[in-house]
């Protein structure tokens, strides 16, 4: 029996939200003296809103990190066992590397009218690019079913490619040993 321990890449979204949180604290501290003049009330409300957004974003990031658990993939003479599913070795047609966000490309035209909106838009694009980097999957296509079955997820492209190659070699070795 061969056991592969696959650990997903760390989630990259936490770093950018910290910048927004600290910027909101700075704006809140600056706006407190301005409250006397009444001009700081909108800034204070804005900074409280950004802090609330940061808090909800941290909850989402915590859920995402909790979902990225290491997985165990076991290859034995009986087949491949991963994520509670078992595939017989004779049923595995192909092992592929895929991406979690495949699909038609959507172009977005966003009218960014303020510097703050531009910063938010750029931060969102950076998080999406970082998430794209750690969203590769190793998938198995079965003979009986043309759908791809998930073997491991949350990997970088290099890790997914290397693991898929190791898995192909192990399946081929066990297939060759099982055939007379």
Textual characterization of the structure:
This protein is α+β, with helices and mostly antiparallel strands. It is built from four helices and seven strands, in the order E-H-H-E-E-E-E-H-E-E-H. The chain has helices at 14-34, 40-67, 115-133, 157-178; strands at residues 2-6, 71-75, 80-82, 85-87, 92-99, 136-142, 148-155. The chain has a four-stranded antiparallel β-sheet, with helices on one face. Strand 3 and strand 4 form a beta hairpin. Helix 1 (14-34) runs antiparallel to helix 2. The longest helix has 28 residues, at 40-67. The protein starts with a strand and ends with a helix. The model is unreliable at 103-107 (pLDDT under 50).
> What string, H for helix and E for strand, traces the elements in order?
EHHEEEEHEEH
Structural class label: alpha+beta
Largest sheet: 4 strands, antiparallel
Strand line-up in the sheet with most strands: 1-2-3-4
Helix percentage: 40-55%
Low-confidence stretches: 103-107
State Rg. 24 Å
Shape: rod-shaped
Strand-residue proportion? 15-25%
Find the count of extended strands (DSSP E, 2+ residues).
7
What is the mean predicted local confidence, pLDDT? Answer: 75
Q: In whole angstroms, how far apart are the ends?
A: 20 Å
Number of helices: 4
